[in-house]
Amino acid sequence: MAIKYIDYRVEPNPNVPTGMALTRLAILSPIWEGSELTIQYPEGDEEMLIGWTTALGGSPAVLKVFWTRHAEEAPAVCLAIGGDAGLRALSIPAAARPESLELPPGRGYALLGLAASLIPVEVLQVIGPAPEMNSRLEPLLLT
């Protein structure tokens, strides 16, 4: 099966001032898409992720989550990406999702890797479990 790719770039903007150069990301699973995603941490804290775009002076965009890896021999990583202005992590309830053109309070990221324990069930139902590593590689043995 041929691997598909997404070419992803984040333009410098108020959300991610440095932006991110064009990067080719391997798609190793179906892609979950949504307007927002709530991450629940073991301590009980919650954070909402939203995609962000430079369109209209800055506004919410589609958030995408999928499995990828940076090299054939690397472990798979669950990756969240947003629009051309990255994504935003908000510490506010989903009911307060920003609809205005102002940058909502929170932190901006070009992309965000999610630990397996933080991937919400609704996302796992779409993307499935992490793809296995290339079986041609020798296992790493620690002594």
Give a structural overview.
The chain is mainly beta. The protein has one domain. Helices cover 5% and strands 38% of the residues. It is built from one helix and eleven strands. The strands form three sheets. Strands 4, 5, 6, 9 and 10 form a five-stranded antiparallel sheet that branches. Strands 3-7-8-11 form a four-stranded antiparallel sheet. The longest helix is centred in the C-terminal third of the chain and has 7 residues, at 121-127. It starts with a strand and ends in a 16-residue tail after the last helix. The model has no long low-confidence stretch (mean pLDDT 86).
Q: What keywords describe this structure?
A:
1 helix, five-stranded antiparallel beta sheet, 143 residues, 11 strands, globular, mainly beta, four-stranded antiparallel beta sheet
